[in-house]
Write a structure and sequence with these properties.
The complex is a heterodimer. Chain A starts with 9 loop residues before the first helix and ends with a helix. Chain A is an alpha+beta fold. Chain A has a six-stranded mixed beta barrel. In chain A, strands 16-17-22-19-21-20 form a six-stranded mixed barrel. In chain A, a hairpin with a 3-residue loop joins strand 8 (about 245-250) and strand 9 (about 250-260). Chain A is built from 29 helices and 24 strands. Chain B has helices spanning about 10-20, 25-35, 45-55, 80-100, and strands at about 60-65, 75-80. Chain B is elongated. Classes of the chains: A alpha+beta, B alpha+beta. The interface of A and B includes residues 31, 32 and 33 of A.
Chain lengths: ~900, ~110
């Protein structure tokens, strides 16, 4: 009987194929098929099919009879264990290289972390405000004839309320009017320099929490003040200041309605006392009942902030507002030929990217470009460290070659070897990472001191930090390990074990290229550091146009009983001081160099039309101001008591004269200008001097004779005996101006504090340039010592043939010198480009001289020579017999 | 052979293989179990036991002839190894030992 060929259900067969691998499938399928056929005979086709399927389904539990998966799992783990053992073994065999590698990497990682911490801190300013995303500062710009004449961080009082009225996108506004005054509580009296008059909405818009007091109404009533914890302690000790009073100024009593927590360090705006804005309104109330501090469009001393609805585009807002503004102010704009603009600045941009006039804390402004620059340096350093690893690993390839040969002979595949070397790289990176983090934690105090930053260890608890670390670990292991892994695993075991292997060819070119890169980076860093240092020096030593040495400045009295007697009292005071032989000259003025001038008004030539008014800065002076500061005249004369007409006279600086259109200073003498609403004759023109830092351009300044001006009393000392002078000045001051706290400073310190940030940047920069070079040298040391080792035989032979130590050293170092030369050639144009951009920040900048490049190149040359020759000299001096015997 | 204890089913399968010399494979074992013990076991259970026993070293196998009856696939035949035989003997002796100690029943094995 011929049995027809029955086919079992295809689904079942398919399932079986899935479950079992080939061998098992054949067995199992055969069995199942046999039963299937039997069943067809016994139970019929249908049941046979069904039961076949059931059997197939039930077979799924036998999946683990298959041989492969189990063994693979066991392999991976033991593989990793074996590789780790191998790695540790190779580490201890070559302790020197391992230490070099680890230190280089650890340093690189530490440097990178420091910089990134610093950068993230600089970027974190003002982020603590809940409304951070939607807070903007209103910038004030004046254009005249299409040119931007004034770019200021402080706007006018009217613009805040005007924006809220006319623009639906504005949820709230707040103005801040900074000033300083004497604060008294009984006997405790100090001059406070951080007093701000603010709208009540300020505390609601910004996140400056109040320890006591209500944010809603703490600043609503006039003559109320919110004080910081520091101020509370100063005036009230441990007592609760709430509800108590402080006297601010000569006579006004303020009630304390709030106690504010200390403002965090990373805020562009800091305060000690917040006074209610209504107080200012009362002070500036005019006859018609309105207050200038609410209605003025031209008084720009008010830092104005607005809170916009979420999602509003600030540029779109600026565009819209410009139209609205023109409707209101267009007439005045056209009449006086100027235009005022009020663009918005997101508060996040203020710390790093804003360098306008009248910033809240100009000395604390950061430099966004410098910060970005530093970030790049951070990664450079890390890159250099990884390059070191690659170089050292490939250089050592000869030693590992026999190991590789043996492994391959014993059956290791190329893949195995690659994994082995990657594991090695991973472990090395891991150890270095740990050391790097330890260095950062241990050294953060020192770093803070050196760079005057305020970094803390909070990053340890930041999950993003650890995420970044893990990424660096894996990326770093891959980058630094992949190339050596490929190179090392490619060795032919036969030729290696035979000894035919010549390690010369293994990655020679790449190694050289990497060394050149490291050197180029080092040269760049050294040259840049030099240029930064030079520029700073230049600014410091710049002929500022006035003399700031040996000059002591005393803050003038705010509180004085009889206003009309002030001028004569002041003159007597000065005359008495001048009797001291140590005090050469003395003067008073409304401003000193180094202090930003806020006092401005308009000036034009008498015969020009109304629309030609320009803004000019004012420094009120007395008869001896220019003499005391040693400021020269370009034309004309100083004010003099003998000139009775001097009440109608004015002195300008060269910049002012130029901006008014005079050909030269002499041409301006005896010309008339409209100034303070009246015609005045120009009697003298002083040479330009740097009121602000050398970074700023010199502004036009007028020096009206203002004997009542008493903000600063400047004393030019002759000699260095500060102690005795100080005591006497203080005594005399307190005699003449009782009730005023004695405050003083030295002009050179004061003026140079403007450069504080630049010095900080220079310090940080130098520190990390040093880091990078050190790491590069570590790598170079490793490479050169390895090189010397390899050529031991050759050196031995040469010595035997009569070569001197010197010629051998020359031979070995020649290779490196060429590399240094090439790296210089590459680096110089890069340096030029980068530093030129940075120097353009400064109004007064140095030219980049060729000497800088040469010095940098020579330094790198010397350093590399020393590093290389250290090992090569040792090798050259060694016994040639031993060298030749070396196998 | 410490620690190699067989499960009940595995022991059964092992015995079956021993009792079917030259012709022990999954299907025959399954049929034999049905016949002798009256148990309906699924073929996959038999497979599981057979291959496990082989992995433990108590069975060895070789491929027998292919036939159309098996859809062209060859048959995997199992034999008991000496280790397997030893294991069965030990198990048997152990049972008898314990049986001897049972007071009421006095079987002579």
């Amino acid at each position: 009987m011929k049995s027809p060929v029955h086919k079992p259900p295809r689904l079942g067969v398919y399932l079986l194929r899935l479950i079992y691998d080939e061998e098992l499938f054949n067995d199992v399928y055969g069995d199942l098929y046999e039963i299937f056929i039997d069943r067809i005979e016994e139970k019929g086709k249908f049941l046979a099919n069904v039961l076949f399927l059931i059997d197939a389904l039930l077979s799924t539990r036998n999946y683990n009879l298959n041989k492969r998966p189990k063994t693979m799992n066991a392999d991976l783990i033991s593989m990793f264990k074996a590789y780790t053992k191998g790695t540790l073994r190779s580490f201890s065999k070559n302790k020197v290289y391992t230490i070099l590698n680890i230190s280089g990497l650890a340093l690189g990682i530490a440097a990178c972390l420091f910089i990134l911490q610093y950068v993230s801190y600089e970027r974190s300013y003002d982020r603590f405000h809940a409304n951070y995303e939607n807070l903007y500062r209103v910038r004030y710009q004046i254009f005249r004839g299409g040119e931007l004449k004034i770019d200021c961080a402080a706007a006018v009082p009217r613009v805040g309320p005007f924006m809220e009225e006319k623009m639906p996108e504005v949820k709230a506004f707040a103005r801040v009017y900074p000033y300083s005054d004497v604060v008294t509580n009984g006997d405790i009296k100090f001059r406070e320099n951080s007093i701000h008059m603010t709208d009540p909405s300020f505390l609601k818009m910004f996140s400056f929490p109040l320890i006591s007091g209500n944010v809603e109404d703490a600043l609503t009533d006039p003559n109320t003040v919110v004080i910081s914890e520091k101020v509370a302690r100063k005036y009230f000790g441990d007592e609760d200041p709430m509800g108590k009073t402080l006297k601010i100024g000569e006579s006004t009593i303020f009630k304390i309605t709030g106690l504010a927590a200390e403002v965090p360090e990373n805020s562009h705006f800091k305060f000690d006392l917040l006074v209610s804005y209504e107080t200012l309104n009362n002070q500036t109330r005019q006859d018609d009942g309105t207050a200038a501090s609410e209605t003025a469009w031209g008084w720009y001393d008010f830092n104005t902030y607005v809170l916009l609805e979420p999602g509003v585009d600030p540029l779109e807002f600026d565009r819209k507002f410009k139209e609205v503004l023109w409707e209101e102010r267009g007439e005045d704009f056209e009449k006086f030929n100027f235009e005022a603009c009020f663009p918005l600045q997101p508060i996040g941009d203020i710390h790093l990217y804003s360098n306008l006039l009248q910033e809240s804390l100009p000395d604390e402004q950061g430099d966004g470009k410098a910060v970005s620059f530093l970030t790049i340096i951070a990664f450079f350093i890390l890159l250099i460290a990884w390059i070191n690893y690659i170089n050292l690993s490939t250089a050592r390839s000869a030693e590992r070659a026999s190991e590789v040969g043996v492994r391959k002979t014993l059956g290791a595949t190329r893949k195995n070897l690659i994994y082995q070397f990657l594991t090695e790289s991973f472990i090395l990176n891991l150890i270095s990472l740990i050391f790097g983090i330890v260095i950062v934690i241990a050294g953060i105090g020192y770093f803070n001191k050196l760079t005057q930053s305020h970094l803390d260890l909070s990053f340890v608890s930041d999950p993003y930090f650890w995420l970044g670390i893990v990424i660096i670990l894996f990326v770093g292991s891959l980058i630094s390990g992949l190339y050596p892994a490929f190179v090392l695993s490619s060795f032919n075991p036969v030729s290696v074990l035979k000894g035919k292997f010549s390690s010369k060819q293994a990655g020679q070119f790449l190694r050289r290229a990497l060394v050149v890169f490291q050197f180029a980076a080092s040269v760049t860093l050294i040259a840049s550091t030099l240029i930064v240092y030079q520029q700073l020096n230049h600014m410091r030593n710049l002929d500022l146009g006035f003399d700031l040495t040996e000059t002591m400045v005393v803050k003038g009295p705010d509180i004085f009983s009889e206003d009309s007697l002030f001028v004569s009292t002041k003159e007597t005071f000065i005359n008495e001081l001048l009797e001291n032989h140590l005090i050469d000259k003395a003067t008073t003025g409304s401003n000193v160099p180094g202090d930003e001038i806020f006092w401005t008004n308009g000036i034009k030539r008498v015969n020009e039309s109304e629309d030609k008014f320009q803004t000019i800065y004012n420094v009120g002076v007395d008869y001896s101001y220019f003499d005391t500061y040693d400021i020269d005249f370009a034309a004309g004369r100083n004010y003099g008591r003998e000139f009775k007409t001097d009440t109608g006279a004015v002195i300008l600086n060269e910049a002012a004269v130029k901006s008014l259109g005079f050909e030269n200073p002499t041409a301006a003498i005896d010309q008339k200008v409209t100034f303070w609403g009246r015609p005045k004759t120009i009697v003298g023109v002083v040479k330009d001097y740097h009121q602000m830092s050398a970074k700023a351009t010199i502004a036009p300044i007028a020096f009206p004779l203002a004997l009542r001006s008493s903000s600063f009393i400047t004393l030019k000392l002759s000699g260095n005996d500060f102690q005795s002078v100080f005591a006497e000045v203080q005594k005399t001051y307190e005699e003449f101006f009782p009730g005023n706290p004695f405050e003083y400073f030295f002009l050179d310190d004061f003026f140079n504090r403007q450069y504080r940030n630049d010095y900080k940047f220079s310090r940080v920069f130098t520190l990390f340039a040093g880091f990078a070079i050190f790491v590069a040298c570590l790598g170079l040391f490793g490479l050169s010592s390895f090189n010397a080792l390899k050529r031991t035989k050759e050196i031995g032979v040469r010595k035997v043939l009569g070569a001197s130590i010197l010629s051998i050293v020359r031979l070995l170092t020649k290779e490196f010198l060429i590399l240094v030369l090439i790296s210089n050639i590459i680096a110089w144009p890069v340096i030029y480009l980068i530093m030129n951009t940075w120097l353009d920040n400064f109004a007064e900048r140095i030219p980049i001289g060729i000497t800088t490049f040469i010095i940098a190149g020579v330094i790198v040359l010397i350093v590399s020579l020393v590093t290389v020759s250290y090992k090569t000299v040792a090798t050259a001096k060694s016994n040639p017999v031993k060298a030749i015997r070396y196998e | 052979m410490k620690g190699d204890y067989l499960g009940e089913f595995e022991e059964l399968v092992l015995l079956m293989v021993a009792s079917l010399p030259e012709n022990a494979y999954a299907v025959s074992v399954k049929k034999e179990i049905k016949q002798v013990a009256g148990r309906n076991v699924n073929i996959s259970a038999v497979h599981s036991a057979l291959y496990r026993l082989e992995q433990k070293g108590f069975l060895s196998s070789h491929l027998g002839g292919a036939s159309a009856r098996r859809g062209g696939k060859s048959k995997r035949l199992f034999e008991v190894t000496s280790a397997g035989m030893e294991l069965l003997r030990i198990a048997k002796d152990l049972r008898e030992q314990i049986w001897k100690n049972i007071p009421q029943l006095s079987f002579v094995s």
